[in-house]
Amino acid sequence: FKAALCNVLLNLKELGCNPLAQTGRSKLQNQRASLNQQIIKQMRMRAGAENLLKATSNNKVRDMVLLELSYVNANLQRLMEQLEGLNSSVEVYQNVHGSVSIPLIPLGLKETKDVDFTGPFKDFILEHYSEDGASYQDEIDDLMDLRKQACRTPSRNDAGVELLSNYFSQLSLLESRFYSPNRQMGIFFTWYDSFTGVPVCQQNMSLEKASVLFNIGALYTQIGTRSDRQTRTGLEEAITAFQRSSGVLHHLKETFTHTPSYDMSPAMLSMLIKMMLAQVQECLFEKLALPGIRNEFFNLIRMAQEAAKVGEVYDQVHQSMIQMPIKDNVPFFWSTMAQVKTQHYRSLAHYFISTALLDHQINPSDDEDKQEKALSQLYDAMPDGRSPLDILRQKDERRHIGKAHLKRAIIGQEEALRIQGLCRHLRKLDMLNNILQASHKRSLSKFEQYDNEDEFTDYMDAPDIISKTEQKAEMEVPASIKVKVKDIFHRLGPLSVFSAKQRWTAPRTVRLKLEDRDLGFTLKGDAPVQIQSLDPLCYAAEDGLKEGDYLVAVGDTDCKWMGVSDVMKLLKDVDEEGIDIKVVSMMDSSTKSATYSGGLPKTYSMICLAFDDDDKNPKGRKVTKKMSFLSWGVKNKHKSASTLSLPTADYSGALPIHKPCPTFPSSYNDSALY
Questions:
Q1: H helices then E strands: how many in the chain?
Q2: Cis peptide, bond prior to residue 154, ω within 30 of zero
Q3: 3-state secondary structure of 365
């Protein structure tokens, strides 16, 4: 038993989920699920108390209800603060070897309730597809297992992303299979807001698809934060993960514009996209700095502008976070972290410029024109109207402006430390505090090195540094959200034909008999094949076969996925006793099944199907001399242009051979893979 259990868990891990994992991340997710349940309980109590308050006029009852409401609201506030604490627990998601890197912010996965598809899907299969819903129990179980694995316990790696993507792709197929525009399935999807824990419940499949997309983006952020940013490979992995996360969130924003959950509102998604791209820009800067920053003039100028770019994008993120109503839903930890990073990277930029001006002088071998151009592109306006060349040539000017930049670096780093102290969750991040303290001490040491006289209070204000980057952070929509999967309900038939939008008759059993080596019709199209050029006087027509019917079974063999060639193999041995086939007819009048679209691809006659290989010239057999409907249909395929089905009236008279036979387009050739 233990060996079997180990094999099951190993298979689940390979599939991208681990339900028994007790990592810090899984424990946080379990706490999130528990908090969501407590929040919904308190919200129900509050709704009941508010309704009672509106309904009663008894002052004593009103006082009791108001007291109860105060308790409920206090509990809700406490639970919201605990949920904010979970969203602030970024240290759990960081790489264990990345203790010298500034923490990145991941997104937590949205939580959901289990969904039972069994009853509604079985009923729909019986009512719409006229098949026994119980025979699809295995497919329904597979779907429910896939949802549970994908939405509850996805692994924090590419396998977990693939698992979520597979489920997302299945949802589009399910929507086409089971969700008719004219009826509700009675299946309710419940998802909890990632920031507030407020539940949203809908029958609409769009909520399910949007929430799964959100979780794909969230999982990419967790992969990015887990990457080892002390290596080039790890940084590239983090960059790719955050780019894909922003691409998924952008796709979510553009595709699902009316989601009722606030964490997926356009305003919130826009802020999240900016935050992911800011973290991409931060990783790009770390990638440049990974080999070490050479104390060389042009390299310092370049790194200063790169650092200024990181500070600029984080400032944009912070400005988005403090806008209402985002401010009320975003964790305070996030906005303060964005503010800290804005100050930190701007201070780094000023430190690099001060080092370039203080540590380097123009030598005869230096390219003055190149240095002048680099310095002139550093500011919108030169300090105190000085020319770049004067600053470079005059040692006092270089020193004066260099110390002004150093002053701004020290002030910015002190501000970053002050802001960090405002948030209790930020104060717990020792690695962040160590990095900020080290940067501040380095700037103070540099200042003491050049502080030969008391001129600190006489410094000019250093101008802002123009940001510039060699590689701008860009979104990347991963191909994983459009992954091809095999339809779980593949047995229902090709989706292009057997979908919820189409209306069908129940399968009819028709007896086929060979008459003068002719079954009386031709087949056309890919899976499933259609009946065309039907002889209204043949035995099959008299037994109920109609022009345009789709052939779904021959004998006991299901042939919804068979093309013409495969069906012909099943029919070639039909003898005088005949064989039963099952067909269905489309009921929608707006369908294109009876419209000729030109040509008859893959159209075959049923003549001579019963011939043996050694009986190719049956001279002694009596053959009727009348023109076969089947032969007529093939010979005149380019002339047929009717859009009407053959009449269902009784043909007791002569057959109107000269009337064109109706034909049907071969448009149903979709594969089972999407």
A1: 20, 9
A2: no
A3: coil
Residues 6 or more apart whose CB falls under 8 angstroms from that of 128 comprise: 180, 500, 504
Q: Cα 265 to chain center, whole Å? A: 15
Location of structure tokens 């009791």 = 64
Residue 508: phi and psi, rounded to 5, are -110, 140
Decide: 510 and 582 in contact? Cβ < 8 Å: yes
The pTM of this model reads 0.76
Residue 59: exposure state from Cβ atoms within 10 A (0-12, 13-18, ≥19): exposed
Task: Look at the chain and count its residues.
Answer: 674
Distance between alpha carbon 239 and the CA centroid of its chain, in Å? 18
Q: Which residues does residue 605 pair with via DSSP β-bridges, in sequence order?
A: 522
**Strand 530-532 with 189-192, pairing:** unpaired
pLDDT tens column, 202-230? 988 899 999 999 999 999 999 999 899 98
pLDDT in tens, 591-611: 443 333 333 344 444 443 444
Question: What does the alpha-carbon distance between residue 465 and residue 308 come to, in Å, rounded to a whole number?
Answer: 7
Exposed, middle or buried: residue 628 (CB in 10 Å: 0-12, 13-18, 19+)? buried
- Distance from C-alpha of 508 to C-alpha of 587, rounded to nearest angstrom: 14
Measured distance CA(518)–CA(282) in Å, rounded? 75
Secondary-structure percent of the chain, ordered helix, strand, coil, rounded to 5: 55, 5, 40
How far apart CA 55 and CA 175 sit, in angstroms, is: 42
What span, in angstroms and rounded, lies between the C-alpha atoms of 239 and 341? Answer: 18
Query: SS in 3 state form for 43-107?
Result: HHHHHHHHHHHHHCCCHHHHHHHHHHHHHHHHHHHHHHHHHHHHHCCHHHCCCCCCCCCCCCCCC
Identify any residues that bridge with 557 across adjacent strands, giving them in sequence order.
554
Evaluate whether 15 touches 164 at the Cβ level (below 8 Å). no
Token pair of 467, please? 């940001």
- Residue 185's SS3 state is coil
Which residue(s) pair with 673 in the sheet? 486
- Distance of alpha carbon 342 from alpha carbon 313, whole angstroms: 8
Q: Which amino acid is at 439?
A: S
Which ranges of 496-546 does DSSP label H, i.e. alpha helix? 539-542
Phi, psi of 225 (to 5 degrees): -70, -25
Cα–Cα distance for residue pair 379/130, rounded to 1 Å: 74
Task: Catalogue the long-range contacts made by 236-240 (C-beta closer than 8 Å, 24 or more residues apart).
Answer: 236/287, 238/104, 238/279, 238/283, 239/280, 239/283, 239/284, 239/287, 240/476
Distance of CA 253 to the CA centre of its chain: 11
**CA gap 501, 177 in Å, rounded:** 8
Q: What single letter denotes the amino acid at residue 422? A: L
Place of tokens 């119980």: 134
> What string of DSSP letters covers 448-492?
HHH--SS-GGGPPPPPPPPP--SS-------GGGG---B-TTGGG
Q: Are 586 and 508 in contact (CB under 8 A)?
A: no
Structure tokens at 82: 């605990």
Strand 199-202 to strand 522-524: parallel, antiparallel, or no bridges (unpaired)? unpaired
Task: Fill in the DSSP letter of residue 112.
Answer: B
Contact in structure between 61 and 125 (CB atoms under 8 Å)? no
Could you say which residues of the chain have pLDDT below 50?
A: 2, 5, 8-9, 12, 19-22, 98, 456-457, 589-674
Q: How many CB atoms lie within 10 A of CB 446?
A: 20
